[in-house]
Amino acid sequence: MNIKLFGITREIIGEEQLTITDKNIRTVAELKTWLFSAYPSIRQLSSLAVAVNHTYAEDADPVGPDHEIALIPPVSGG
Amino acid sequence: MNIKLFGITREIIGEEQLTITDKNIRTVAELKTWLFSAYPSIRQLSSLAVAVNHTYAEDADPVGPDHEIALIPPVSGG
Amino acid sequence: MLIKLVDDIDLNEAYHYLRHPGAGAVNLFIGTVRDQGQGKAVTRLSFEAYEEMALREMQKIGAGALEKWPLKKLLIVHTKGEKQVGEPVVVVGVSAPHRDVSFEACRHLIDTLKQRVPIWKKEFYTDQSSWINAHP
Amino acid sequence: MLIKLVDDIDLNEAYHYLRHPGAGAVNLFIGTVRDQGQGKAVTRLSFEAYEEMALREMQKIGAGALEKWPLKKLLIVHTKGEKQVGEPVVVVGVSAPHRDVSFEACRHLIDTLKQRVPIWKKEFYTDQSSWINAHP
């Protein structure tokens, strides 16, 4: 499963894309738990959303290799 | 005393400027009373203000030959 | 503060006037000639202004806004003469550090202009014409 | 509805897009690079966008506004890349029959854009830089 990274999450993780092979990650909530553990400084952000197929996803929404997944740290456009 | 006319008051009176020689007209209120009597259709306007020296004047303010006086029918700029 | 009566509105000039390094927000309101008025089709408009007094009232409105809000720049520009459907007739605008103030102040400028500035609009329809707001 | 990500904002294009014979009111909000942020002097900004999703969110915001208000036209244009102090970074605008709606809808566009659209601003100061809003 590939995860696109932007802004501060790109800088924290140090890549433009993260590849996760752990098959136990099947929901947005599980993905966030995994990220918080692997990259503790992500916890310090004001918020962290996950986009699945270009749409804001809920914690219970599924994630998998067929989805376009991205981390959305706090936005600051405008 | 000369009175500048704009918009619908210019059309009602039929002139760009009105000259009044009646010496009994010494205030804005007296000027309005005179106008309402001389040009009854002015009464039908939504409002009528009088400007003295480019400023909205009150009923009690003086008017005379040394002032620049104008009738201000309801404005509609913008 | 840019206050003037013009034949035609230049929006780029307006925006460039408002730019300021201390401003994060610019709000511009542009009033344009609508194709309908009083329930009839409008063919064109004409504006008449008591120019000296209109400029003075516009200046008072601008000065009042600069006193009330922390604005960087402010403009009020109105046209005079004949206007066709779709053409801009007035532009008001401000620049401010933040957007709240920019919306509030810009709204105040156009509302107050419409209440106080001695400019009169005549709408022409296919068969007649009317001075706007003149009668109840 | 004009929705796009661009290198540079063209305000004349924006205004010409919004013109409509049925509109009496146009409101435009332009966000610009301010010379201060987080209490420090800003030297420049950089915007990063998740482009496909940003465009999709901008389209949703526009569609929502067209449903809620009787707008004639609507635009949301954001820049990407590097911006200097004073440069415009976003323009949102609407045309509507009357001014009330134009102010309300334009305000809604910029507020919602700032909440939802996946674009990130990095401010550069003389000695460091910061992703805006990232931390509490």
UniProtKB/TrEMBL annotation, chains C, D:
Keyword set includes Acetylation: no
Pathway connected to this protein: Cofactor biosynthesis; molybdopterin biosynthesis
A Pfam family reported for this protein in Swiss-Prot or TrEMBL: MoaE
Record key words, sorted: Molybdenum cofactor biosynthesis
Presence of the UniProt keyword Ribosomal protein in the record: no
Enzyme Commission number(s) of this protein: 2.8.1.12
InterPro entries found in the cross-reference section: MoaE_sf, Mopterin_biosynth_MoaE
CDD domains, per the entry: MoaE (cd00756)
Catalytic reactions of this protein: 2 [molybdopterin-synthase sulfur-carrier protein]-C-terminal-Gly-aminoethanethioate + cyclic pyranopterin phosphate + H2O = molybdopterin + 2 [molybdopterin-synthase sulfur-carrier protein]-C-terminal Gly-Gly + 2 H(+)
The family this protein is said to belong to: Belongs to the MoaE family.
Subunit structure: Heterotetramer of 2 MoaD subunits and 2 MoaE subunits. Also stable as homodimer. The enzyme changes between these two forms during catalysis.
Protein name: Molybdopterin synthase catalytic subunit
Gene: moaE
